[in-house]
């Protein structure tokens, strides 16, 4: 196919560089994270494109549809969206996906990778439009929505494509086999190794990071030959709807059935994900969200490979530091970013009751907590700056937890949350973090801080010693799961204890971050997001294990 050959040639350099980056693990990205890199007129062009979507039906030509429209998104910033999406019946949607698979499965891994890279390139060209779609469905502030919702998400998609290509290319397409037989003629066979996709994949999107968390599974499945049904969260449909539309356009132009990628829109709380997940045609499921539904998928969708990223209790151990000011600043930003609505945001800060050693001298537990509270207040003291860091609260349950903390329901407040007003978006719901002092040895306190409290509610946990902190970290990750662990120490002995605890419990560790890298950030092609080794997730973005089981290899032998 001439169109596919042209795509292979167009994107070969990017794919080759991506494959190299997988091994180097240094910083690399083909997608600029700075808005100005997209041209002087790109921001306004993206805004016009986004505004043209407001108040209109979202068209997906050729996708099976009942003719009905669904739309329940509400911008956390108060902007009227009123976008409606075509409704599809599950049997028709899955039948269309299955019918589309043949030619795609027969394409070479190189052809599929090139088509996926073209989809990503076109998404990247519309990063300003995508940023607004992400901002007004997730509550991410503008800068984060552009970077995390755009180029950083695209990086994760490309990473998945590169791994998928590498895994499919491990076996040659053809091989000759000759076995000597002494004086007799050798045994000779000609062999073919054909990659075969698992079947239809279901990608269940989340409300907070629909593209960043959605692209790894979407592109891992597509690049390995599987059709993908994209089921967005009802409150964050637009970013994934745009993704589906772009993917369908590219697939059709390349000569493939656009129903390889379809959108399953639903009303809020309709529960179509369960119906899709249990259908026998669905062979792969990618899910990000609550532990409850993730556990349900793992226990009930037995016909499918299920990849989940669920809830966890992320923990920081503060034993000592050589840069007290830098530590406080780093933690203050990490706890404030996107109002803590990130699966990687620290929740529990374990601090020895007797205090810590710092470059500014000894600091008591109370001083550390008070200084951290002051650092957060200083960071968020100006409402305009606070809004740019915090974004808006997207989940009603997060708002309820913030209110409960403010009312003293969680315990001794070291820092009370406050309402932030945005001049740009007067209707936005914005809250600053709450910091609560608790005791590790008190049963009521333990029950509280050993439960995920998603959002801007954090616990400063007084522990007896650094060793107790390490053991509490180990227990937390093992029993509750975690996406991240963080440690601050100047002691080689404590550092080794922290490392061993994280290896034992299966969580990635960040040590002594005091600069511009934060515990809740991970970079594609270098960092792994999750490990699959603790209850918070059963897979990692994006290692070989995340893609390799999405296809199998069938061998065909010929005796000439």
Word description of this protein:
This protein is of the alpha/beta class. 42% of the residues lie in helices and 17% in strands.
Cα distance, first to last residue?
Answer: 30 Å
Strand element count: 19
Cα shape: globular
Q: What structural class do helix, strand and pairing data support?
A: alpha/beta
Strand order in the sheet with the most strands: 14-15-16-12-10-17-18
Largest sheet: 7 strands, mixed
Task: Enumerate how many helices there are, as a single number.
Answer: 19
Indicate the percent of residues in helices. Answer: 40-55%
Map the helices and strands.
Blueprint: H1 2-24, H2 42-51, E1 69-70, E2 85-86, H3 90-106, H4 109-125, H5 127-138, H6 142-147, H7 151-168, E3 174-181, E4 184-197, E5 200-204, H8 215-223, E6 228-231, H9 238-253, E7 261-263, H10 272-277, E8 282-288, H11 291-300, E9 305-309, E10 315-318, E11 320-321, H12 324-336, E12 348-352, E13 357-358, H13 365-380, H14 383-390, H15 396-406, E14 412-415, E15 434-439, H16 443-449, E16 457-463, H17 466-480, E17 485-488, H18 492-505, E18 509-511, H19 544-548, E19 551-558
Parallel strand pairs: 5-6, 5-8, 6-7, 8-9, 10-12, 10-17, 11-13, 12-16, 15-16, 17-18
Antiparallel strand pairs: 1-2, 3-4, 4-19, 14-15
Helix pairs in contact: 1-4, 1-7, 2-5, 4-7, 4-9, 7-8, 12-13, 17-18
